[in-house]
């Protein structure tokens, strides 16, 4: 069994909850309240900024030129392609670039990105990949699953989102990170593998919390306190 098979098996109950979450299912069936999706897009924009920082760290921690180069390309693609597409998509939803830039991070967004940056800065490349892999891998699974719902790909509001994460290109990114995770796990002790597994499960839990946060429009509970 490959290490990522073990990770996938352990995370399966968490990922299933994410797949079945009303936010995710609402995207696939085209029934999600647009205000919830707008909230998600704004918070996801902030998340992508820190995700790009993780790719920069990946390039720094890479031990060979190929790995360093791929992480550098991912950094460039995130900053100059994916985030631009994000801004264009948000604009079609009535969210201006100024609104995106002025977005205040929700507690879950801060906790999730902060956790990933913390374990990645303190640890090796293996810890970094364990932290970022659930986002990419689970999004590809979700996109693939939602694309099978009749009409999901053609939905005027959410079809493009489903296509993006069900795409072959996004799947190739997930596959590359899966392969890298297995390579980095080779020769590690059970204690080291268990530590990587815990990171993977924690960011899988944060993925679920991000969907739930967006569905419930959760900001700070003290925001209404004067």
Can you give a write-up of this model?
- With 226 residues, the protein is mainly alpha-helical.
- The chain is 79% helix and 0% strand.
- The protein has ten helices and no strands.
- It has helices at residues 3-20, 22-29, 34-61, 65-92, 97-102, 107-122, 125-146, 159-166, 168-185, 190-215.
- The longest helix has 28 residues, at 34-61.
- The protein is globular and about 50 Å long.
- The N and C termini lie far apart (55 Å).
- 32% of the residues are buried.
Largest sheet: none
- Write the element-wise H/E pattern from the N-terminal end onward: HHHHHHHHHH
Cα-to-Cα separation, first versus last residue: 55 Å
Could you list the spans in which at least 5 consecutive residues all have pLDDT below 50? none
Number of strands: 0
Shape: globular
The portion of residues forming beta strands comes to under 5%
Whole-number mean pLDDT: 92
> What is the chains' assembly state?
single chain
Count of runs of 4 or more consecutive helical residues? 10
Helix and strand content put the structural class at mainly alpha
Rg over alpha carbons:
17 Å
The residue fraction in helices comes out at over 70%
What's the helix and strand layout?
Layout (H helix, E strand, L loop, with lengths): L2 H18 L1 H8 L4 H28 L3 H28 L4 H6 L4 H16 L2 H22 L12 H8 L1 H18 L4 H26 L11
How would you sum up this structure in a few lines?
With 226 residues, the chain is mainly alpha-helical.
Give the tags.
10 helices; mainly alpha; 226 residues; globular; single chain
């Amino acid at each position: 069994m490959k290490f990522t098979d073990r990770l996938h098996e352990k995370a399966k109950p968490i990922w299933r909850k994410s797949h079945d979450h009303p936010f995710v299912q609402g995207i696939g069936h085209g029934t999600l309240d647009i205000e919830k999706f707008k909230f998600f897009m704004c918070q996801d924009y902030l998340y992508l900024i820190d995700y790009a920082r993780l790719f920069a760290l990946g390039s720094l921690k890479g031990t060979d030129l190929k790995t360093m180069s791929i992480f550098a390309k991912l950094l460039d693609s995130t900053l100059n392609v994916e985030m631009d597409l994000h801004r264009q998509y948000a604009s079609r939803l009535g969210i201006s670039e100024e609104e995106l830039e002025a977005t205040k991070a929700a507690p879950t967004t801060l906790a999730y990105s902060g956790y990933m940056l913390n374990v990645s800065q303190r640890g090796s490349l293996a810890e970094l990949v364990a932290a970022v892999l659930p986002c990419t891998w689970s999004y590809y699974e979700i996109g693939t699953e939602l694309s099978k719902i009749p009409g999901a790909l053609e939905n005027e509001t959410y079809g493009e989102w489903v296509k993006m994460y069900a795409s072959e290109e996004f799947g190739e990114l997930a596959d590359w990170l899966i392969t890298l995770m297995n390579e980095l796990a080779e020769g590690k002790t059970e204690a080291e593998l268990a530590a990587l597994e815990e990171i993977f499960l924690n960011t899988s839990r944060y993925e679920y919390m991000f969907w739930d946060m967006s569905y419930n429009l959760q900001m700070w509970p003290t925001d209404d306190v004067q």
